[in-house]
Every structure is written in structure tokens, then in C-alpha cells.
Amino acid sequence: MESRKLAVTGAVAFTPRTFRDERGVFSAPFQQPAFEAARGGPLFAVAQSNHSVSRRGVVRGIHYTGAPPGAAKYVSCVSGRALDIVVDIRPGSPTYGRWDAVQLDGSAPGAVYLPVGVGHAFVALTDDTVMSYLVSAPYVPENEYALSPLDPALALPIPKDLEPLLSERDTRALTLEEAERSGLLPPYELCRELEERLGTPAAVRDRAVGTRV
User: Which BP terms in the Gene Ontology apply to this protein (predicted)?
Assistant: First the structure.
């Protein structure tokens, strides 16, 4: 399995080997040894798995979990095609304000790892695009935030031949600058601390982080 560091600090794209024959395709989009080598640490405990189905042109994001608790994500495309986008929204990060994009294809599965505090968005390039997420924290509505994927300052690479279809929440979301002024973005140093503790038991991790927040 090949891994590639993205332009956002801590984010990694993974490309597994794909085996094809007359029956179809087999691949392993998650492989623990390759993941831990690329991340530089142990596998995070998976608290929840998510599954979405989107029609062509749907844009979901930019979504992120406030820190604490923060959340890491491992995202893959099960069917269809998507442009997966990672956005560094962590003030203090060396790549703050940058984004990178990876095309994920269900017929040749790859994956993207998003460390704690990094924003996530994707554009469905086909109908019935199915995305799968492994997440390090359970969904708690009051911890979840959104930024505008149409923020002109970010200029995300949404294909020009698509009419973006957004939820009401994403349509009304703040720009990156507005969210920073409002103090809603997760600080880079706190995100790094939370990231380092992903491999520790939850009770120990929560006590340790609680001493800083």
C-alpha cells in the first residue's frame, strides 16, 4: 500500500494495490501497518463509522469537530467517484488556510486520513457516490461545525461543470475568516496534543486533556 503526504500537515492519502480478474476487483483500502507507519503512531480507536450516498454535484462540508474533543477521520469511496478535500483550519498550523484534494474512486479504492482539527469536504462526481468514514469520536451535535465550501478566499476546486448542491447548513456556514474571528476554529497545538493521544485509552486521554482545557 502506498501513502502520500498531502499539502495539509498530518493529512495522508493511501493507495492500495488493486487486483482485477473476470469476477471484478479486490482491494484493501485500510491496512493497519501502512497506516501506522504513515501516521507515525498507533491506530486510533474507532468510535463510529459513517456512510453517505450522494447524487452528482452534491458538496458536503467543510465539516469539522471542535477541539476538544476533536476527531480524526479515515475516508474512502465505496462506489462512484468523489473529489475528497482536506482543509487546514487550525490557527497556528504551518499550512493554515491551505487545502489539498484527492480523487477517490470506488472501482479502485483509495483513502484519505484527516488528523484532528482538519476540515473535510467532498464533491460527488457521479450519482450514487457512496462515502465511508471511520471516526475517532462519536457524533455529538454541539461539537460539530461547518465552514462554507464556497468561501472565495479558500477557492476549493469544485468542478466548473457541476452545479453545487449544498445543505441549508452548509449554505449558511461561515467563511474561514469569520470563524477565526469568532474563535470557533481548533488551535493547532491543541489538535496536535489530541492527535498524539488518539492511541491511548479514552478515560486516560480525557483526564489528560482536561488538565489543559
Answer: dTDP-rhamnose biosynthetic process; polysaccharide biosynthetic process
Neighbour tally for 9: CB within 10 Å: 18
Q: Catalytic residue at 133?
A: yes
Annotated catalytic residue 145: no
- What is the phi/psi pair of residue 209, to 5°? -65, -35
CA distance 106 to 96: 30
Contact indicator for 17, 98 with CB cutoff of 8 Å: no
pLDDT digits (tens, 9 = 90+) for 63-111: 999 999 999 999 999 999 999 999 999 999 999 999 999 999 998 889 9
Which pLDDT belongs to residue 11?
98
Supply 1's cell numbers.
500500500
The structural domains of the chain, with segments of one domain joined by +, span: 2-210
Of the residues 63, 74, 113, 188, only one is catalytic, namely 63
Residues 6+ apart with CB under 8 A from 46: 134, 135, 136
CB neighbours (10 Å) of residue 17?
A: 11
Q: Which three cell numbers stand for residue 89?
A: 483550519
- Summarised one tens digit per residue, pLDDT across range 113-136 is 999 999 999 999 999 999 999 999
- Of the residues 64, 113, 133, 145, which is catalytic? 133
